[in-house]
Write a structure and sequence with these properties.
Number of strands: 8
Largest sheet: 8 strands, mixed
Order of helices and strands: EEEHEHEHEHHHEHEHH
Structural class: alpha/beta
Low-confidence stretches: 1-12
Strand order of the largest sheet: 1-2-4-3-5-6-7-8
Strand content: 15-25%
Distance between the termini: 29 Å
Number of helices: 9
Mean pLDDT: 94
Radius of gyration: 17 Å
């Protein structure tokens, strides 16, 4: 996520019905909204489920929407060891098994897009369709200025200012642990994601690659990802940044629903 992202949207989503489940040893917070076929929303780095509040109501009109918070995010406590995409994908698979979801649409934003992709690659049976929002699969997909920023290292000052106080308000680890999680994620972003385009042929589920035209993923890379996947579509939303689901929630929801119904 980048500093130009907006504050949390003002929505009517209620934090009712939240629960915890043991997902492979991680006490995972999640919410369930709506009814219908299962759909799992996978949030971005540093983000709690509140950042999906612009999407959840519209998606919940047609689907049972699960919104788990991953290790070290939101109301789910951090655990020993690094935060990696492989670990978060394994946690997500464990979560789906724990709540009894045998197949679901996976909609991931930013880090969540990589998690969705890895789940679909590892467990084809779990993923019905995948939506990847705003995320390159390797560093070649980043705009030049972001690659330059990463080469010098990320700092807390580069994050959207709303993230740290939100973490402090809801994390079971307490506000002081934000620095620990930040260092774990910064360590992750120095080396990942690092998926070769040729590896995407292993993902056979229908996939939508969606980005803003001012996103952290270039249009050229998004098109290369689409071509590398066996069955994929590309949607480029004009006038949107990496904060696409928060900037244009109604349009993002409409595009997702159209793809899933397709």
């Amino acid at each position: 996520m980048t500093k130009n992202e907006k504050a949390l949207p003002n929505t009517t989503v209620q934090r009712t019905g939240g629960a915890y489940v043991d997902a492979g040893g991680v006490r995972t917070y999640y919410e369930v909204h709506g009814s219908g076929d299962p759909l799992v929303l996978l949030h971005g780095g540093f983000c709690p489920v509140e950042t999906f509040d612009g999407l959840t109501p519209g998606l919940a009109e047609q689907y049972t929407v699960y919104t788990p918070e991953r290790r070290g995010h939101g109301r789910t406590a951090d655990v020993e060891g690094p935060i990696t995409y492989a670990a978060m994908a394994a946690d997500t698979i464990a979560f789906l098994d724990a709540v009894g979801v045998s197949e679901a649409h996976l909609v991931g934003w930013s880090d969540g897009a990589i998690v969705a992709l890895l789940v679909a690659r590892a467990r084809r049976d779990l993923a019905r369709k995948v939506v990847m929002i705003g995320q390159p699969v390797n560093f070649d997909g980043l705009p030049g200025e972001m690659r330059e920023t990463l080469s010098h290292g990320l700092t807390k000052q580069m994050l959207p200012p709303m993230l740290e106080p939100l973490y402090a308000a809801i994390s079971p680890d307490g506000p002081q642990h934000f620095d620990v999680v930040a260092e774990k994620l910064f360590a992750l972003y120095r080396i990942e994601p690092d998926i070769e385009l040729s590896e995407l042929a292993a993902v056979s589920v229908p996939t939508l690659v969606m980005i803003g035209d001012g996103d952290l993923c270039t249009v050229e890379h998004a098109e290369a990802v689409r071509q590398a996947l066996i069955n994929a579509h590309l949607a480029v939303v004009p006038g949107a940044s990496h904060a696409l689901p928060m900037e244009k929630p109604a349009l993002t929801t409409a595009i997702i629903l159209d793809f899933l119904a397709g």
